[in-house]
Amino acid sequence: MKTISFRNALYAQVIWFIAATIFNVLSIVAMADGQTGWAGPTPVSSQIIATVMAAVIVFGFLAWRRTYPVAASLVLVALALGGVGRHLYADASAYASTTTWAMAIGINVFGCLAFLAGVFFVKRTG
After folding, report:
1. Is 103 helix (H, G, I), strand (E, B) or coil?
2. Are the beta carbons of 12 and 117 closer than 8 angstroms?
3. CA–CA gap between residue 102 and residue 38 (Å, rounded)
4. Fewest CB within 10 angstroms: 89, 99, 109, 111, which?
5. What is the pTM of this model?
6. pLDDT over 80 at 120, yes or no
7. Cβ count near 30 (within 10 Å)
8. Using one digit for the tens of pLDDT, what is the confidence trace for 18-72?
C-alpha cells in the first residue's frame, strides 16, 4: 500500500484548485447566459480568492518548509470557513441546483483535506 507523502498532498491541492477553477468558470458561463450560478452568486470573487490560496501550493513545491505550513494553515482555516462554511450555510436556492450546492461544498472539503495533509506531512518530513 502506497502511503501519502508531502508531494502527494501538494498534487491533491493542485487537483482542488483545478476543480474549483472549472466549477467557478462554469458558474460564470451559466450566469453570463442568464442562468443561476453553480457556485452561488459570487463566482468571480471566489475564483480570485482560490487563486490567491493556490499561490501557497507553490511555496510547497519550492520546499519553503517554514513559510508553507504557516501559509497553508491560514488557507485551511479560510477554506473551511469561506469555502465550506459559506456554502454549507447558504440558501441552496441561490445555486443552480442542490447538486451544484453540494458540489461546491465537496470541492472545498477536498481542498481542506488536501491542505491539512500538506501541513501534517511537511511537519513530518521537514
Report:
1. helix
2. yes
3. 10
4. 89
5. 0.91
6. yes
7. 17
8. 999 999 999 999 999 999 888 877 889 989 999 999 999 999 999 998 999 999 9
Q: Which of 89, 85, 91 is nearest to 36 (CA)?
A: 91
The arithmetic mean of pLDDT across residues 93-119, rounded, is 93
Residues in the chain: 126
CB 104 within 8 A of CB 40: yes
Interhelix angle 98-125/67-78, nearest 10 degrees: 160
DSSP assignment, residue 34? T
The residue behind cell 458561463 is 29
Amino acid residing at 37? G
Residue type, 87: H
pLDDT confidence of 1, banded at 50, 70, 90? very low
Place of cell 506531512: 121
Amino acid, res. 33 = D
The C-alpha atoms of residue 76 and residue 39 are separated, in whole angstroms, by 19
